[in-house]
Specification:
46% helix, Rossmann fold, binds nicotinamide-adenine-dinucleotide, alpha/beta, 15 helices, 12 strands, 7-stranded mixed β-sheet, 5-stranded mixed β-sheet
Length: 436
């Protein structure tokens, strides 16, 4: 097929001043602006670029749940498959009051990019339910998960779309997804979801994988930039799956983690925090905010504390044009998806701050999810040593590729990562051609 027969002009360049107000905050618009910037820098086929500006499939579902008090509450949920040119779609499920269609679209797009950057044979997807899981009982969460799974079961499956955990979902939620889907089939189907408990086909190393990937990219960055990682004070925002594991793995490697936070508040000690003790505290309390062996910091000032390395590992838009000028870190490693608004990105770039983008920095999770899926399909399970070695190979390889493009093309690391991913996506789209 001649792709030149379907030309659409690339969108006109967006001037920074023009989009400053409009784009700060909406993740989908921010994602599309990132796509345009990289697409222009590498002169991507307009055909491939245009396809990536649209999600392949968007499913909105209503999820009725019988609450503990007998009422029926109906929640809105989504499952979005952004692109499947390189393989089945892959992406997490988020439970949060601020879930929105545009957020899930952006997250599904970033999954497409992420899988292409680390060269996994997957496309991108994401799911979410607008709910406040902190106010729901375990029984309500189970019923919510099972009904949502039944509603999206028409588009998920081990060859089609494989969910995983994200904000406020965990191994138990994945077990309910796997069980519900398997019940409709009549046999066990572990490959429908990753991030499951080990007992039902989960993978060793999956729980720590995103944090471990964050550590690998930071270690590689230190090697390329020539600084001593063990002497660089680190702050981690968010103490859930990604943040707590990243902080712990940094500490295990002799690094100095001086700040950690969760939604309740931040902890800071310039001499270094005792991660082992804080993790233990977290396991026995709702929040780390009341831990009393470190200085307490309000979350709105937390990212501005002195450090060399900042790991935002909570939600989107943690760093915006409002706080970017006051960020003291020299390096930002995006553990979360979309934690830096595009406006903040420009400000940080002008200040000389290096941002390792989400689609590279937090790709360790989907990489070990891929290993879990492969193991499930083979019913043959690998050792943790083997998994971590393979994870390291993939993340270090992707980091090297992105860093080299960043140097060669003289673009920031986000644009470089997009260029690496878009090259693969562009080729896949062109080779497959367009149906019919
Ligand atoms: P999680 O639910 O396990 O943890 C989220 C953490 O962020 C909690 O500790 C919460 O208290 C904290 N938080 C929320 N708002 C905050 C705020 N304003 N300030 C400080 N802390 C705040 O979620 P997670 O799985 O760790 O995901 C975190 C981010 O990483 C999300 O952007 C997610 O999409 C991304 N991510 C997750 C994975 C994964 O494997 N779980 C993989 C790649 C990317």
């Amino acid at each position: 097929m001649d792709t030149k027969t379907t030309p659409k002009p690339s969108p006109a360049p967006v001037k920074v001043a023009e989009h400053m107000e409009a784009h700060d905050g909406n993740p989908w618009r921010q994602a599309m602006e990132q796509l345009d910037r990289a697409g222009r820098a590498m002169k991507l086929e307009p055909f491939a670029l245009e396809r990536l500006r649209h999600c392949k499939r968007i499913l909105t579902v209503s999820v009725p749940v019988k609450m503990d008090d007998g009422r029926v509450e109906v929640f809105e949920g989504y499952r979005i498959q952004h692109n499947m040119d390189r393989g089945p779609a892959k992406g997490g499920i988020r439970y949060h009051p601020q879930v929105s269609l545009d957020e899930v679209k952006a997250l599904s797009f970033w999954m497409t990019m992420k899988c292409a950057v680390v060269n996994l044979p997957y496309g991108g997807a994401k799911g979410g339910i607008i709910c406040d899981p902190k106010k729901m009982s375990k029984g309500e969460l189970e019923r919510l998960t099972r009904r949502y799974t039944a509603e999206i079961s028409i588009i998920i499956g081990p060859d089609k779309d494989i969910p995983a955990p994200d904000v406020n979902t965990n191994e138990q939620v994945m077990a309910w997804v796997m069980d519900t889907y398997s019940m409709t089939l009549g046999y066990s189907c572990p490959g429908v979801v990753t991030g499951k408990p080990l007992e039902i086909g989960g993978s060793l190393g999956r729980r720590e994988a995103t944090g471990r990937g964050v550590f690998y990219v930071t270690r590689e960055l230190a090697a390329r930039r020539g600084f001593d990682l063990r002497k660089a004070p680190i702050i981690v925002q968010g103490f859930g799956n990604v943040g707590s594991n990243a902080a712990n793995i940094f500490a295990e490697h002799g690094c100095k983690v001086v700040g950690v936070s969760d939604v309740g508040g931040g902890l800071y000690d310039p001499k270094g925090l005792d991660l082992h003790d804080i993790l233990h505290y977290r396991d026995t309390h709702d929040s780390i905010a009341d831990y009393d062996k470190a200085e307490h910091m309000p979350i709105d000032k937390f990212l501005e504390l002195p450090c060399d390395i900042l790991v935002p590992a909570a939600m989107e838009n943690a760093i915006t044009k409002a706080n970017a000028p006051r960020i003291q870190a020299k390096y930002i490693i995006e553990g979360a998806n979309g934690p830096t608004s595009n406006d903040a990105d420009h400000i940080l770039h002008d200040k000389g701050v290096v941002v390792v983008p989400d689609i590279l920095a937090n790709a360790g999770g989907v990489t070990v999810s891929y290993f879990e899926w492969v193991q499930d399909m083979q019913s043959y399970f690998w050792s943790e040593k083997e998994i971590n070695a393979r994870l390291q190979d993939i993340i270090v390889g992707a980091f090297t590729e992105v860093y080299d493009v960043h140097l060669k093309e003289k673009v920031d690391m986000r644009t470089a990562a997009f260029m690496v991913g878009l090259r693969r996506l562009g080729k896949a789209a062109t080779i497959r051609g367009m149906y019919p």
